[in-house]
Amino acid sequence: MSVLVVGLSHRSAPLELLERVALDGSRSRELAAGVVGLDDVSESLVLTTCNRTEVYADALSFHGAVAQVGDALAQATGVALAELTPHLYVHYEDRAVDHLFSLACGLESMALGESEILGQLREALRAGQEGAHLAGVLNPLFQQALRVGKRAHTDTDLDRVARSLVGAGIDRAASVLGPLHAARALVVGAGAMSGLAAASLTRAGVGDLGVINRTRERATRLAQAHQGQAYDWAELEPALQSADLVLTCTGATDHVITEELLSRDRTTRPLVVVDLAMPRDVAPEVAHLPGVTVWGLTDLTGRGDEAAPDETEQVLDAVRDLVSGEVAAYLATRRSAQVAPTLAMLRTRASAVVDSELDRLDQKVPDLPDAQRAEVHQSVRRIVDKLLHTPTVRAKELAAHDVDGSSVALLRELFDLDPRETAAVTTPPHVRGLP
Over pLDDT 70: what percentage of the chain? Predict the structure, then answer.
């Protein structure tokens, strides 16, 4: 296994650059398809969220894959590699697995511990599966990452201290507007994040909820699910004018809410706008309008004020311990699995030797009765199986703790096993270049 991660996020890059490299679904799929076709990559998966763009790959060589993935990322985003490079991070093998598992638990998110990342990982995995960009490394790795993320929320108190982006925005809005049961709220967009926003607003007690989307049918479905009202996209301006709280998250590449749109016939009545989109839905000038408060992703980074700081840190330590244990277990399992092709080839070699010697025996003693011949054949095979049993068990145990693969290499050397033959035992046909 040689898992490689190349990407950038809110931890490594300014918001302006993250907006420029943000990829929609079709461009993400194009990038994944381009990466899997590179000489030094056999699998690929692209993860794009509101605050990160990452390429995961099963790398055949480290330096070659890093260079090729970097070039592909620059080409897909339209941002020069020289501009991207200072903000890119690279994780490889053990660190790549640790990064992914930590990400699944929300430890790498702007809102620490948020659970929306699990849905985004699941969607990225689905896209990779549908595009046939995954095989025997990234597919099980991301499946395990999803399980680890779920464990973090079920086996620790992470949910109690975590603050989602939506929850943080709603709480901040209440500090400006007061109790939200009297507020008129508008959700702009009808995607997954908008659905979460609508559900969170309902739980917060908002009684007057509106949903607007370019596709009226999607707005209607979301509004009906939360006893709200749907609007046509042409009604955006009056809907904004009557709202007290706006949560927006669309897939638009340009600003959806502009100064001109809000300033016409506007009073100074307080308005809170929570911009959850990447690129941003709200033009920067909107924040300068009288009575308007705008919060974007970089503002919603609270750690969770329901728990005391020391209690929060204890919970995070528990999640980190969970991640460390899961990473160690996963790597041990993977390393044990990596010795399997070599052991399979060893048994194939041993079986071939046994068959050859038994054929010689049959030729030398052609008159041996069938019953005795069968007993001799069974005894010889049983002896070989017993001789190979202990080395097989020990090889698996050693491989579980073998970081550099030296034990597998030694096994191949001792029995003169061709690594190309052993690799062919478990390599999927499309990776081997077969139809």
Answer: 89
Neighbours of 274 (CB within 10 A): 27
Amino acid at 221: R
Any catalytic annotation for residue 50? yes
Q: Which residue in this structure is represented by tokens 């390599």?
A: 427
Number of H helices, E strands in the chain: 19, 10
User: Edge-to-edge strand order for the sheet containing 3-9?
Assistant: 41-49, 52-59, 3-9, 89-92
With b meaning 16 or more CB within 10 Å and e meaning fewer, what string describes 41-76?
Answer: bbbbbbbbbbbbbbbbbbbeeeeebbebbbebbbeb
Q: What is the mean pLDDT of the chain?
A: 86
pTM above 0.85, yes or no: no
Question: Which residue is catalytic, options 13, 41, 50, 277?
Answer: 50
Distance CA 307, CA 88 (A): 34
Write down the residue that tokens 């949560």 correspond to.
247
Asked whether the beta carbons of 364 and 356 are under 8 A apart, the reply is no
What is the sign, positive or negative, of the torsion defined by CA atoms of 59, 60, 63, 68? negative
13: phi then psi, degrees, rounded to nearest 5:
-140, 150
